[in-house]
Amino acid sequence: MNRNTGWYNNRFFPWVLPIVFVVLWQVLGQYNIITSTLLPTPLEVVQAAIRLFNTEELQEHVFISTQRALIGFFIGGIIGFVLGLFNGTILFSEKLTDTTIQMVRTIPHLALIPLVILWFGIGESAKVFLVAVGVMFPIYINTFNGIKNVDRKLIEMGSVYGLSRWRLFTNIILPGSLPSILVGIRYALGVMWMSLIVAETIGADSGIGFMATSAREFMQMDIVVLTIVLYAILGKLSDVIAKLFEQRLLKWNAAFNKK
């Protein structure tokens, strides 16, 4: 039986539960089963978004948060990828640094906030640092494991055919480890937004987290819920982009070549 022909493979099917949830949420709020002071209705949240959009406040905060997230992601991602690459391909590097990295990885990076404030203050550097640290480890561990799990027989075959080290890496090791690396990137994208949420609630003067903190102080529940929805939308958008990269880069892999 072809798994791609089922009615549940319709592109709109994954949105059934979110739509049902929003409709139920609106109905419960509209009939005061859930009060607006506890949880505003979706329409009230949309009205708050329109209000902030018209003043251009919404665009400004979303842009600043996205900028922080991407800078931290690229810094942490590059460090994690390079460390995973070296430790996965060079035995000396693995023996020297992997144990230390694994020890540091077990420390919740958000527990470093008091130290980060002392090191960087409450400026942009502190927020980017927290995001970078959170992103680095998922990409490192998946890059490292991906390289280690490449079929040794393929590497031996490449050596027999006289491939140089560079061609051995680009033609066999990197493609073989790419599925694991991309899984690490998808996981790191989720950690990126989680780290940013916490970072922006600490002494920020801009960004979605700052908007949430300010709204909480004035009991503007519609804006508080709006910030949660914004993080969810940005997180989902990041995941969609990562999946598109998976489909583009892993066309050769039947598991990712689904139409």
TrEMBL record:
InterPro entries, per database record: MetI-like, MetI-like_sf
UniProt xrefs under Gene3D superfamilies: MetI-like
Transmembrane segments: 12-34, 69-92, 104-122, 128-147, 168-189, 223-242
Entry annotated with the keyword NADP: no
Ranges for domain ABC transmembrane type-1: 62-242
Species of origin: Oceanobacillus polygoni
Stored PANTHER family: ALIPHATIC SULFONATES TRANSPORT PERMEASE PROTEIN SSUC-RELATED (PTHR30151:SF38), ALKANE SULFONATE ABC TRANSPORTER-RELATED, MEMBRANE SUBUNIT (PTHR30151)
Zinc is among the record's keywords: no
BP GO annotations: alkanesulfonate transmembrane transport
Family indicated by similarity: Belongs to the binding-protein-dependent transport system permease family.
Membrane topology type: Multi-pass membrane protein
One GO cellular component term noted in the UniProt record for this chain: plasma membrane
Name of this chain's protein: Sulfonate transport system permease protein
Location (main, coarse): membrane
This protein's UniProt keywords: Cell membrane, Membrane, Transmembrane, Transmembrane helix, Transport
Subcellular location: Cell membrane
Pfam families the record matches: BPD_transp_1
